[in-house]
Amino acid sequence: MSGYDQGSHGTSGFALIVVLFILLIIVGAAFLN
């Protein structure tokens, strides 16, 4: 379980990039419409 805890630490940065990417797509789709 401790290994998973360590993995979540590095995932936070990746999750932030994914959220920003999704926001970019939503904004882009709204702009195109």
TrEMBL record:
Pfam family, any one: YjcZ_2
Keywords (A to Z) from UniProt: Membrane, Transmembrane, Transmembrane helix
Subcellular location per the Swiss-Prot or TrEMBL entry: Membrane
Transmembrane residue ranges: 12-32
Family listed: Belongs to the SscA family.
NCBIfam families: tiny_TM_bacill
Name of this protein: Uncharacterized protein (TIGR01732 family)
Provenance organism: Sporosarcina psychrophila
